[in-house]
Design goal:
Elements lengths: L1 H8 L8 E7 L5 H9 L7 E5 L5 H4 L5 H4 L8 E5 L8 H5 L4 H20 L3 E8 L2 H13 L9 H8 L1 H15 L6 E5 L3 H22 L14
Parallel strand pairs: 1-3, 1-4, 2-3, 4-5
Helix pairs in contact: 2-10
Length: 227
């Protein structure tokens, strides 16, 4: 771990930007995983972008515009709590996008991500998955505890009834948008601690691999020489 700490503070990191994308089923633990990632980071060097329905201004621009404008400059990290994949997930399932729009989006997204990686960005995409039984357990737990009840609403229950449609959309998303520059990392989320640790380890491993590949970081055996 000392080498990894040095990596985040190294001037060599300023040559690259880092983007983390978090997608997953409702109650899968995206927010808690994000908090664990940022817990050890300098707040000046990252920002979290929670993605909701587009504004009127965002609807007036091409679909990916609202994400382009939040891409970090070199040396910084942006975390998307949900992302451009909404076009092929919620917008597809809920009918907010036409079939022509969401089918076209797969190629648009791959080209978008490829252009970011070509410019030196490290892009890590997480899908946090939980079983049907575990999701129901977490919903019922939130409903029964006053301090957690705010996390659950009627929309969550309605979305749960469409789990089959969402899983079908997720499978096609993996098939069409998993590419060498930015593969998907699927996180088993039924065990919260396991999921959080795996997310952190994956971020570290993928950053190190990218830096070594691009020649901006020593190989693991030489971490102690990093300045």
């Amino acid at each position: 771990m000392p080498g990894r700490t040095l990596l985040t503070r190294s001037k060599k990191m300023r040559r690259h930007s880092l983007v983390l994308v978090f997608e997953g089923m409702d109650a899968a633990g995206k927010g808690s995983a994000i908090r664990r990632v940022t817990g050890a980071l300098d707040a000046r060097h990252y920002r979290i972008v929670p993605v909701a329905a587009p504004t009127d201004e965002e609807r007036a621009h091409p679909y990916l515009w609202r994400f382009w404008r939040r891409i970090p400059r070199p040396g910084f990290l942006t975390i998307f709590d949900r992302s451009w994949y909404g076009r092929v997930l919620v917008e597809r399932v809920e009918g907010f996008a036409t079939e022509e729009q969401w089918r076209r989006a797969y190629d648009e997204i791959v080209r978008f991500e490829g252009s970011l990686c070509d410019e030196g960005m490290v892009l890590i995409k997480f899908w946090l998955h939980i079983s049907d039984e575990e999701q129901l357990h977490r919903f019922e737990e939130r409903q029964s505890k006053p301090l957690k009840r705010w996390k659950l609403n009627d929309e969550d229950w309605r979305n749960r009834k469409q789990r089959g449609a969402y899983l079908e959309a997720v499978e096609e998303m993996f098939e069409r948008t998993d590419h060498p520059a930015a593969p998907w990392d699927v996180i088993e989320g039924d065990d919260k601690r396991f999921a959080r640790v795996k997310v952190i380890e994956t971020v570290c491993d993928r950053m190190e691999a990218a830096m070594v590949e691009r020649g901006t970081m020593p190989k693991p055996g030489d971490w102690h020489r990093t300045k």
